[in-house]
Specification:
Inosine-uridine Nucleoside N-ribohydrolase, Chain A, 314 residues, alpha/beta, binds calcium ion, binds beta-D-ribofuranose, 8-stranded mixed sheet
Length: 314
């Protein structure tokens, strides 16, 4: 007997790597996407919600419900990343205007209502951007926290430290106060930090495999990753670009590709110098109780094989 698909809400700020993650989810029968909620992050909300709709349409799934969530972090001004993702957030291929409508309900209300309606522990939140929507939902409706199955999020780093400041990763840095609320919430959290996403690196062969699918989604993924790659190659001298956000969805589908440790992770919200740092007790040197499964290793070949096969299904 095949298992029922896992119900997920994708919270996202597309972003080329977010786009690939959304496509992976929409292509995979193991998950059922209840909705996609946009948040301000890589680019402002007006672009992230638009990009989310474009990606659902280009995946051939215009029936997917897309919501707009928060347009700025809880306490701080918005920091964006056009230098990485381009002015639209999805620079690379020329994209059509979306035709599918944005849902009228606010994304935070959608998260709250869905978690209250669906059975206990049956909905997983997949967070691919700053945690503003999720933390706002927790503040407004703490009763939803024990109802969540898991939160699988891309954010933070330990050995890899930071990609936006010397010690902070972008998603956590943009809204550290939201991250603090989520990590202290008591929900079951799985973290995909830079330590693992920097192992999900594109290469000319891996990009060629997407192009060789000879489908529209395959071409788009190849062109997005091509665009995204130039930034990391120039900045870090790396061989390719890290496909950060698809790690979240891949973990749901093939967790055996990943390994990590259950540890304590706290978020720095006070210091100007280290704001947004994920203080991860990897060596368990404190008595602080574990609150997150912190992933650090990946079977990259298996990951890209999965991704290519799934994009080929769209
Ligand atoms: C994260 O920041 C964004 O730029 C990417 O989409 C990813 O979610 C990596 O630090
Ligand atoms: Ca993202």
């Amino acid at each position: 007997m095949t298992e029922a698909p896992r119900k997920i809400i994708i919270d996202t700020d597309p972003g080329q790597d977010d786009a690939v993650a959304i496509m992976l989810a929409l292509a995979s029968p193991e998950v059922e996407v209840l909705g996609v909620v946009a948040v301000a992050g890589n680019v402002p909300l007006a672009l992230t919600e638009r990009n989310a709709r474009i990606v659902c349409e280009l995946s051939g799934k215009p029936e997917t419900r897309v919501f707009a969530g928060c347009d700025r972090p809880m306490l701080r001004p918005l920091v964006t990343a056009e230098q990485v993702h381009g002015e639209t957030g999805l620079d690379g291929p020329t994209l059509p205007e979306p035709t599918m409508a944005l849902q009228s309900q606010h994304g935070v209300d959608f998260i709250i209502e869905t978690l209250r309606r669906e059975p206990m522990h049956s909905v997983t939140l997949c967070a691919l951007g700053p945690l503003t929507n999720i933390a706002t939902a927790f503040q407004r409706a703490p009763d939803i926290i024990p109802r969540i199955q898991q939160i699988v999020l891309m954010g933070g780093a330990y050995f890899e430290l930071g990609n936006v400041t010397p010690v902070a990763e972008f998603n956590i840095y943009v809204d550290p106060h939201a991250a603090d609320i989520v990590f202290k919430s008591g929900a079951c959290i799985i973290v995909m930090p830079l330590d693992v996403t920097h192992k999900a690196l594109t290469s000319p062969q891996r990009i060629a495999a997407f192009r060789d699918l000879k489908t529209e989604p395959g071409r788009l993924v190849a062109e997005w990753t091509d665009f995204f790659e130039r930034f990391d190659k120039q900045k870090y001298g790396s061989d390719g670009a890290p496909l950060h956000d698809p790690c979240v969805i891949a973990w749901l589908i093939r967790p055996e590709l990943f390994q990590g440790r259950f540890i304590n992770v706290e978020i720095e919200t006070q210091s100007e110098l280290t704001l947004g740092m994920t203080v991860a007790d990897w060596w368990r040197v404190t008595e602080r109780p574990g609150n997150a499964l912190f992933i650090n290793s990946l079977d990259a070949e298996g990951f890209f094989a999965l991704l290519t096969e799934r994009i080929g299904r769209l």
